[in-house]
């Protein structure tokens, strides 16, 4: 199971060419922030993971 930070770093490291600058900024924030994600942030991260072909976070991982 991945944490939001691990998911953000995986996207930034392995899929950066497919990201918009806004998505990259969002993922950078997730990588360094210790704050819980909002529902909107969790939804955006889920979309980015899906587009990259990476597994979604499980419910317990979204903290």
Task: Output the keywords.
single chain, 63 residues, mainly alpha, 3 helices, 0% strand
Question: Would you write up a description of this structure?
Answer:
59% of the residues lie in helices and 0% in strands. The longest helix has 14 residues, at 39-52. It starts with a helix and ends in an 11-residue tail after the last helix. Helix 1 (4-14) crosses helix 2 (21-32) and helix 1 crosses helix 3 (39-52). The protein has helices at 4-14, 21-32, 39-52. By secondary structure, the protein is mostly helical. The protein has 3 helices and no strands.
Topology readout:
Elements: H1 4-14, H2 21-32, H3 39-52
Helix pairs in contact: 1-2, 1-3
Rg, Cα atoms, Å: 10 Å
How much helix, percentage-wise, in residues? 55-70%
The beta-strand count equals 0
Distance between the termini: 12 Å
Q: Which stretches are poorly predicted, pLDDT < 50 over at least 5 residues? A: none
Strand content of the residues, in percent? under 5%
Number of separate helices:
3
Overall 3D form: globular
Structural class: mainly alpha
């Amino acid at each position: 199971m991945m944490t939001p930070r691990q998911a953000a770093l995986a996207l930034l490291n392995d899929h950066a060419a497919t990201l918009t600058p806004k998505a990259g900024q969002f993922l950078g924030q997730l990588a360094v922030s210790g704050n819980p994600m909002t529902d909107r942030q969790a939804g955006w991260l889920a979309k980015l993971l899906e587009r990259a072909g990476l597994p979604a976070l499980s419910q317990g991982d979204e903290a």
